[in-house]
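new request in #modeling-help
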Amino acid sequence: MKKSGWRFSHGGQIDRTQPISFSFNGKTYSGFAGDTLASALLANGIHLVGRSFKYHRPRGILTSGSEEPNALVTVGEGAYKTPNSKATEVELFSGLIAQGQHGWPSINFDIFAFLNLLSPVLPAGFFYKTFMGPTRHAWNFYERFIRAASGLGQSPVKSDSEHYQHRYAHYDVLVIGGGPAGVSAALAAARTGARTLIVDSDHLWGGSLLAEGTAGRRQVGGEHPLSWIEEAMQTYSMQPEAQSLLRTTAIAIYDHNLVALVERVADHLPYAERSDMPRQRLWFVRAKQIVLATGVVERPLVFSGNDKPGIMLAHAVRAYVNRWSVLPGRRAVLVTNNDSGYAAALDFLAVGGEVTAIADLRSEVTGPLPELVRRAGINIWAGYGVVGTQGYRRIKGARIARLTPDGTTRDPSTPLSLIPCDLLMVAGGWMPNISLFAQAKGRLRYDPASGSIAPGVVPKGIQVVGAANGVTRHYACLLQGNQAGQMAAEEAGFNSGSGTEINLPNVIEPAEEPMRSLWRIPARNRQKTFIDLQTDVTVGDIELALKEGYTSVEHIKRYTAQGLGTDQGRIGNLNAFKLIAESQDLPLSAIGTTTFRPPYIPIAFGALAGHEVGELFDSTRRSPLQTWQEKLGAVFEPVGQWHRPLYYPSPGESSHAAIQRECAAVREHVGIFDASTLGKIEVSGPDAAEFLNRVYSGKIASLGVGRCRYGLMLKDDGMIFDDGVVTRLSNNHFYLTTTTGNAAAVYEWLEEWAQTEWPDLRVYIAPVTDQWAVIAVAGPLSRQLLSLVSEGCSFQNADFPHMSMREVTVAGLPARLSRISFSGERAYEIAVPARWGMALWSDLMIAGEDYNLTPYGTEAMHVLRAEKGYIIVGQETDGFVSPFDVGLGGLVDLQKSDFIGKQGLSSFEAKRPDRLQLVGLLPEDTEIVIPEGSSLVSGPEQARSSAEGYVTSSYYSSALKRSFALALLSQGREKQGNRVVAVADNQEVFAKVVNPVFVDPEGSRLRD
Amino acid sequence: MILISCPWCGARNITEFRSGGEAGVRRPTQEVSRQEWGDYLYFRDNPKGMRTERWFHRHGCRQWMNVARHTVTDEIFAVWPPHQAMPEFKVDDLSPAPEVENRPELRMVTEKDLP
């Protein structure tokens, strides 16, 4: 084989007829269809893929799957950029552009690598200890430099140009994982007729078998185990309700078996071929039964200098050799504590690699696989370990030394040997992929035989099979899968009937001797010993954290960043837990694990958002008059999902001038206002009056037909919940208004009491907010204007008094015309079916030309009502304000036998003498508008204690030609005439406490 | 995401519902002591285990219902309309993992398996 050629000419799961050209760090390379970026890079002899998180050390490819901690790259550019992609997961496509991360100017020559030299003075928590200080000032200054020097890939700047879909689906059985156990389970379940889905994150079925050599140390039915998988998936696909998804990763299990899956629909396609396809699809699958066949990841051994490019897990070597026909090196050393590593050595030998030494931590090595290696003439160093490595950008050699029998130190009597190599294979045993199992609240246990954490107590509706369940033998995987598939189908209501006999193929596999559960190789040199390669956490960092008093795994995780990377510690966490346990002389079960949280792999924000982006992010409610308001150039404010006109500026007019003009129009002639967003509810039925009598604090039962009454709804603690006007349309039919923001809450409130507390009352409640357009016409000339356009009623004060409603024709439209006012002026509200709102508004505007009819917005409405001392729920009230506090005690009828809040009003708290009460404030400087929310204090500066109240509303009044405010002040009514100080923004404003009604306290303008 | 079987609509996602807290809290209609009133207004049980609670199918039939739910496992044992008796059900504990036989068929690897 030529020196430049790392790919051999036959075998593997790649298509040599389809060469693919791609770019890495600006250079063009070539790979084949079926390659991942990692296998293609290795085929081009590239091991150095990125720089590390904290010390900028060169890093290579450690694994061949989603657990990869090192080989993080940025894929794509501009609007297609995806940082922190794992090279081991990225499928190669024509035109793929990838960049190594976190090296500047390049990953081969990185200026920040000096941080590696500083590493002895950069322990865990260094940045926080050094730069935080007692105040945050220092940190605020240094933070941007630190962020520039450490971290992972950079976020894309452009918004994502691809789109994402969401999909919901229901299945009887969901199988997660397409290895032997998963395929066996899916086949058994689907055969019963159960609606079955099997998913795998790879683009081929087979799971770990894809890494098995063709020479085959395992056989199923006399063939390579992958042939059995192929056959089984063919049979599966013929079952009536069987479905399967490749390139699909289960990222989360939520309550009641809801599973989130990410399907990578177009990620593997050249950009030009993606056209309108979604990039990814996020599935929400509700499965009656889940079978977890999530397999295992290989554990690394922890030794000095264990992070260099060219150090690779043994299973990954098998995958690159057998699946991708790539030689990840020419001369390899294997360090192992179990038999599985020997399979990698045999595979590596089979394709012409050289194995220069095998260091086995076990002092006695027997068993069939090591025997085969011995026969190949390879020296097995039993009882030896790797205690150091040579090389910087690529491993050049491994230092091998004998360990003492207890494994705690190097045996000083034997010399150290340096074995040259360009590949160091590491086999530290297996760790079941239990993330999803733990997310589903499955309980874990420590399995001493495998030295690992394995599923313990299984939650309802879930089964875990195969290697994920701690099983190592192939036959047991197939058997467990089969049994679990049948059981799941039965639990989901399907009878497996005649298929119950297990018909599994004959499995042949080599026996394995027990592993040595030693995970850390002792060494006495200055090379770093990494536990978490992605976040650059060393053994020393964790030991330091322990010394500093951090003993819980959750605390150590946060202090050292152990397991905080994008791989979620899948490679390093178990070793970290063991270190923490052993350092404290505790069993692993006593320290537990950190919490396994979704998502299992990093996921694009776009996939989470789906199509709910831009205009579809939130729904918008439109007033029937909004088109007109937009045309007129109104300035809008968001109120819940509505957009309400704040004011209507004339060309060149300031907001202040516009609001003053609008207020003056209402006080002096007539204004027009869109009140359509106000909540509207109809209550009917034989007991409607009784129901409302209990819901409102005031008298409703005595309300006459055609009359309106302002009322308060309280919560049971006696505090104000909402206010509005009740109109009696007929004896058993009422129409209520609510505040705009509370419409849905009030409707639910009424439903709740009607259904749960008073089911004996016969009432029907209907929300009608969207059904009506409501236009308020307010001002001294409102009566003249309306009598001009209305038919069917007399506008004489005696015939149509304040707080009454008439069903009339306005501008030719049938309307409910109510004489109610929120401005203190004579005013009417006209309600017509929503679709006629625009017609009514236009006709009124034309009819109003002679009266200078002026549209006014919510800000003028606020000023006008505050001048009258009318409260706004949520502004003058905050859930702790009673009707008596705001001077509305007259709306409380304590004579009624019961209403919501009655007992609350008699409570000690509601009767406290020092309660906050609504008052008016007149600033001494008539031009200063006190900021809303300002605290109120009194007395000379030295004598002040705590705030006595606060400002709730504050405006400039056009009617008073001065500023004014409403406030809640402790014992405020007794303090009228006093001087208080409003404090806000380090500014003090002196003001006089007055009655909160500033305009027309007698109410004559309202009633005349 | 919890699935609640609404007596009127069938099994629906929790996102369609609003929680109404503990079920069976009695609202005093007559004048009661401060203690009793405070208990009604502010105090609720927070058991570890099964509890009965009220849920409102806000984005569905807009009906209230009672639910018996395990506060740790989120298992729902029963759902029934308000003002009806709770149906009978059994509360299981977490079921242990099924023991599966690990039955490898062993064969020594022979000379011909060597690369």
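bot summary: DSSP finds one helix and six strands in chain B.
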